[in-house]
Amino acid sequence: MSESTGLLRIDLNAIAENWRRLKNYVGADPAAVVKADAYGLGMLPVASALYQTGCRDFFVATLEEALLLRSHLSAQARCLVLGGAPAGAEQTCVEQHLLPVINSIAALRRWQSSVGAAPCALKFDTGMTRLGLPLEALQDREYRDLLAAANVMVAMSHLACAEARESEHNTRQQAAFTQVRQMFAPLWPRARWSLANSSGIFLGKDYHADLVRPGASLYGFNPCPGRASPVRPVVTLQLPVLQLRALEAPAAVGYGAAGKMPSGALLAVAAGGYADGLQRVLGTEGKGFCEGVEVPVVGRVAMDTTVFDVSAVPAIKERWMQSSDSSLTIDILTSTHNVSEVSARNASLGYEVLTSLGSHRYRRDYLPLEDAVSDSR
Amino acid sequence: MSESTGLLRIDLNAIAENWRRLKNYVGADPAAVVKADAYGLGMLPVASALYQTGCRDFFVATLEEALLLRSHLSAQARCLVLGGAPAGAEQTCVEQHLLPVINSIAALRRWQSSVGAAPCALKFDTGMTRLGLPLEALQDREYRDLLAAANVMVAMSHLACAEARESEHNTRQQAAFTQVRQMFAPLWPRARWSLANSSGIFLGKDYHADLVRPGASLYGFNPCPGRASPVRPVVTLQLPVLQLRALEAPAAVGYGAAGKMPSGALLAVAAGGYADGLQRVLGTEGKGFCEGVEVPVVGRVAMDTTVFDVSAVPAIKERWMQSSDSSLTIDILTSTHNVSEVSARNASLGYEVLTSLGSHRYRRDYLPLEDAVSDSR
């Protein structure tokens, strides 16, 4: 049977390989950020592959994500919740061996009054101005006593401008992080310190601390914009063609009649549209590949379909037009035209391309780990 | 326990009421387009509510959607598949009482050679230049014989510019549709004819034919841009606040340090980001409401969080800053600041706002039908 929805192929070997490359670069086991369903690629298969590769620290955003992950991963895995423990969920966190990332003095008070010195993680704000204890608070004697009583397993901060290699914001944040570490390290002997996300890793050794936290780079997203990518692509996306259409007269294609095409043009209507996140993945200068030939999007991406101009594909009309075989496809993401490529050419926030792949209409095909060893060396 | 993810509330009564309004306006039972998980709102609860309200014709995009819908709806419901029958799935369609919308001569041949005169639907292309039989093909004698042999239950076309009320494209498509209907109606005595989507309904009686096919308007999206909406809002979205933060010095907020805020500003970090489709829903001039006060987004929307400037909310600092109660929320979509409002103020494709709400991290709360009658009159 031919298919009516796109095929998202996720190479778990590539994800494992990326984790190993980052490990070799840093010289220590990285954590893995698997929040938002592993950026749309599937939290459970991704985390399981990374666990088999040696990863033991997993970051999620919400309690719900953490509970799902915990129920599927070995008790050896540490599971950290970036959004912290919702009020009333402190006991659940302790029972399920989750480490909430405590982000404010109010949250720390709530945690301690509920579960005392249970292990937790703690985030300082060194310049992101989002979640995290503000540095001003550390001057307050009462707050310092609260902090001293905490059983901190991971002490962390987050970079705001890591992708802008030359930004002084990075050096300022790194300096503030070092200062906080000097201040609190003696109080928390078990704590590992963590600052760098994917791009932060490539700002240099000063940013590595004890634990790096890659997310996007594990999934094939280039953490070094403008330079060669240190990671491998992970995802391909292929759409089935629902219909080929030869124009016998000039025509306006799709909604708003926005795509003007000449007589003789050959159009392929592919299954997949903005309800599948395709508008983000295609970007503003949308294109795909048909039998290896670059084919541009014509007109507007619709909810369930996208039209491509396949006139340039050799002999496609003769081979497919009246054929009862309907297995013609359009490649949207390939090993060369990948997530980083699309993001680099577009103003849209790059990571949004990845998370846009989370459509539940795609069929998902996971290439399994070929060599599941607990340590690659 | 307080919550760590947003709450999407979907009012099934409003959806039912919108269907009844369209029915009264048209004077006949509308179909319902429930593809793409009912534009992100949940195909099964939405279709079930509409069935109870009297709707009997349901349009989906893919075979997978159709099989899921069929397994949950009464056999009385007709289920039409806009993407057609994938090659090899013809028998499945017949067994499951699905009506594929046949979009090309090649597909019609495949259908007839596999299941003969089994009931189907058929789409003509009257000017959308996407899916559908081109009108040129109707001149061909061989094709007309094929068409004459088809057992067509629904014969349809689709408008490309229905939202542009004054576009001549509409009148041209309507005229072509009427011509095709005159040509084929005698051959297909059981066929109902269908042209109008949500906006097409409001182009006038000439566009109603036998069966109208609203989608977006059922879900509260104004089908008449620039005029008062004939439908009720359906969806509200509320995000929990993870942390309140008073700035003791000027600060740059979030990724890229893009949001500049003065000393004294009060920031609320809400749970929900672009992985939840929030970037589309907030639009380019993002805002929410906190205790009824309009609050702007500060800096970039991140994957899991969005920061709002809540300085203007009266006495919020005194009431919430050190409170252990963490039930403060930000309203993103309300009955007045709704999906149509957001779309109207933004260049982004309006319907994409709706489908962007499909995040699986939101908790979903369906307001059930209060008065489930099979006919409202």
Secondary-structure map with pairings?
The structure is a homodimer of 377-residue chains.
Chain A: E1 7-11, H1 12-26, E2 32-33, H2 35-39, H3 43-53, E3 57-60, H4 63-70, E4 78-81, H5 90-95, E5 98-102, H6 105-115, E6 119-125, E7 133-134, H7 141-148, E8 151-156, H8 168-184, E9 192-194, H9 198-201, E10 235-246, E11 251-253, E12 259-261, E13 266-271, H10 278-282, E14 287-290, E15 293-298, E16 305-309, H11 316-320, E17 329-333, H12 339-344, H13 350-355, E18 363-367
Parallel strand pairs in A: 1-18, 2-3, 3-4, 4-5, 5-6, 6-7, 6-8, 8-9
Antiparallel strand pairs in A: 1-10, 10-13, 10-17, 11-12, 13-16, 14-15, 15-16
Helix pairs in contact in A: 1-3
* Poorly predicted runs of chain A: none
What is the CATH superfamily classification of the largest domain in chain A? Alanine racemase
Q: What's the alpha carbon Rg of chain A, rounded to whole Å? A: 24 Å
Helix content of chain A: 25-40%
Oligomer: homodimer
| SS-based class of chain A | alpha/beta
Give the largest chain-chain interface (CB within 8 Å).
Answer: A-B, 88 and 86 residues
Integer count of domains of chain A: 2
Total DSSP E strands of chain A: 18
User: What is the rounded distance between the termini of chain A?
Assistant: 44 Å
Largest sheet of chain A: 8 strands, mixed
- Can you tell me the CATH class of the largest domain in chain A? Alpha Beta
Overall form of chain A: elongated
From the coordinates shown, what is the CATH architecture of the largest domain in chain A? Answer: Alpha-Beta Barrel
